[in-house]
Amino acid sequence: MRRAVQIAYLAAGRNQPNPYVGAVLVCKNSIIGEGFHHLYGQAHAEVNAIANVKAKNRHLIAESCLYVTLEPCFHFGKTPPCVDLVLKHQIKRVVIGCEDIFPQVAGQSIAKLRAAGVEVRLGVLEAEIKWLTRHFFSNVRLQRPYIILKWAMSKDGFFSKKGEKIQISNPLSQRLLHRWRGQEQAILVGKNTAEIDNPRLDGRFYADKNPLRLLIDENLSLLGKNLHLFDNQLATWVICKPEKAKSWENLDNLRYVGVEFGANFIPNLLAYLYQNNIKSLIVEGGANVLTQFLSLNLWDEARVFVGCDCLREGIAAPSIAPHLLVESFNLDHNQVQLFVNQ
Ligand SMILES: NC(=O)c1ccc[n+]([C@@H]2O[C@H](COP(=O)([O-])OP(=O)(O)OC[C@H]3O[C@@H](n4cnc5c(N)ncnc54)[C@H](OP(=O)(O)O)[C@@H]3O)[C@@H](O)[C@H]2O)c1
């Protein structure tokens, strides 16, 4: 099962909005096939694990034990049900890391396998696999994108100097951030960050995949400014009032997206993203936007870079209850703090 978890992560940033899933076929203590779910709409982990078995070993499939991180699917989605594939190959033992909470599965495959006489063991490495599958489970439970808040702050807790761009992260933390960017579907920033920092919001220092860039600009007041976000190079949505969105023509990569502003703006935006299949989001600031997500308790993880210098004044960084800190480590002179919203 550890191997199944390990290979499942190889899909990071590639198969969303589907979950990361790994599967391993073991016969007489040897792995004869393994696979993971690579890309949205393509073969699931179980299909790839079975296809991976060499011709000379195919007669061993029925004698093997299938280890799979998530309960096999029960329904026809973009591919046929994996539970039927397991039965077709007459696999007699299946070890499942975690039951799938997706309503169209939700234990039905486990029941079908058991009813057919397959020995099923459930709940192996369950905590690790719930973490592996956290984006998907959060989507199903909360019907909104998985939300990661990210910021950098000085050693004395400042986010930036008012109206200025300050570099807190170092080259190593930037590479880590760009890796994270490549693993999620979209990045959101507020209007002031776009104007003051002029970020590219891409993954150029690490990832080969760039997320969708999202900018909040209710009245399109930044239009016409020479900002990287308007370079039409990467997919970018400018979130504005519906009547403003209607008055501008979309370019190849630049779209004007109308969302109702006002007190419910953040929930409205999340609903729009979710309906448009954007199921994971990094919120990269500024403090104003991050604080809105924190005060609505609309976040799953926060990833914070703490610099080694003091700013002494400026915009105070958002704060998170210390008991939600799950990990911290150093990257050169930055400390990285990881929080999980329990
Ligand atoms: N340390 C870090 O990690 C980090 C990261 C990003 C940015 N920064 C720094 O942070 C500063 C900018 O942060 P900030 O807090 O001033 O601004 P911000 O969060 O980037 O943008 C806030 C602005 O976005 C618009 N906006 C946000 N939510 C809205 C809503 N619900 N409805 C309507 N409009 C909304 C508003 O523009 P209007 O008021 O014009 O309507 C608001 O003033 C910069 O100095 C930047 O360098 C630091």
What is the first-to-last residue Cα distance?
Answer: 25 Å
Radius of gyration, Cα only, in angstroms? 23 Å
Mean pLDDT comes to 96
Q: Under the CATH scheme, which architecture of the largest domain would be assigned?
A: 3-Layer(aba) Sandwich
| Domain module count | 2
Oligomer: single chain
The proportion of residues forming helix, as a percent range, comes to 25-40%
So what's the overall shape?
elongated
Bound molecules: NADP nicotinamide-adenine-dinucleotide phosphate
The number of distinct β-strands equals 16
Please give a structural write-up.
The chain has 342 residues and is an alpha/beta fold. It folds into two domains: 2-138, 3-Layer(aba) Sandwich (Cytidine Deaminase, domain 2); 145-340, Dihydrofolate Reductase, subunit A (3-Layer(aba) Sandwich). Helices cover 26% and strands 25% of the residues. It is built from eleven helices and 16 strands. The chain has helices at 2-8, 45-51, 82-88, 108-115, 126-132, 134-142, 171-183, 191-197, 242-246, 265-275, 287-295; strands at residues 22-27, 30-36, 65-70, 93-98, 119-122, 146-153, 158-160, 186-189, 212-216, 236-240, 254-258, 280-283, 301-306, 315-316, 325-331, 334-340. It has a nine-stranded mixed beta sheet, with helices on both faces. Helix 8 links the parallel strand 8 (186-189) and strand 9. The protein is elongated. The mean pLDDT is 96. NADP nicotinamide-adenine-dinucleotide phosphate is lined by residues 151-153, 159-160, 164-165, 168, 189-193, 196-197, 216, 218, 261, 265, 284-289, 292, 315.
